[in-house]
Design brief:
By secondary structure, the protein is of the alpha+beta class. It has one domain (8-121): 2,3-Dihydroxybiphenyl 1,2-Dioxygenase, domain 1 (Roll). The chain is built from 3 helices and 6 strands; from the N terminus they run βαβββααββ. The protein has helices at residues 14-25, 65-68, 82-93; strands at 8-10, 28-34, 40-47, 51-56, 106-111, 117-121. It has a 4-stranded mixed sheet with strand order 1-4-3-2, covered by helices on one side. Helix 1 (14-25) packs antiparallel against helix 3. The longest helix has 12 residues, at 14-25. The protein is globular, with a radius of gyration of 15 Å.
């Protein structure tokens, strides 16, 4: 087996992340562990053939970079039709937020200098 890299993203609400990523980008849920406390503490999703991400609850000691006003990483999703993906992602945010940022911290309207649209995830 060749080495691979799989991002492990920390979310304060993993269940909301699962829902948003499925609706916004078409990610498929592969695995979900719900702890004895009743919330999702680990999950895995896939998009396309090779795009896999892991997600987890960070625990009570976690200091969310977004709450501190900083960013620590960015996740890029590559799609064939960026305009259609942009509209789908924007629609997935609408019920959760008055702006273009979802409840789990995905910024949907980010323009690259080339004029194309992109979607990125803010630090959790």
């Amino acid at each position: 087996m060749s080495p691979t890299v799989t991002p492990y993203l920390l979310y304060e609400d993993v269940e909301a992340a699962l829902d948003f990523l499925a609706r916004a980008f078409g990610f498929e849920e592969l695995l979900r562990y719900t702890g004895p406390e009743g919330y999702v503490n680990h999950a895995e999703m896939r998009i396309g053939e090779d795009g896999v991400i892991y997600m987890g609850d960070p625990g009570e000691q976690y200091r969310n970079p977004a709450h501190l006003g900083v960013r620590t990483h960015m996740v890029c999703v590559t799609v064939d039709n960026v305009d259609a993906a942009y509209e789908q992602a924007k629609a997935a945010v609408a019920p959760q937020s008055s702006g273009a940022t979802s409840a789990i911290g995905w910024e949907i309207d980010h323009a690259w200098p080339s004029g194309s649209r992109a979607m990125k995830r803010r630090s959790p």
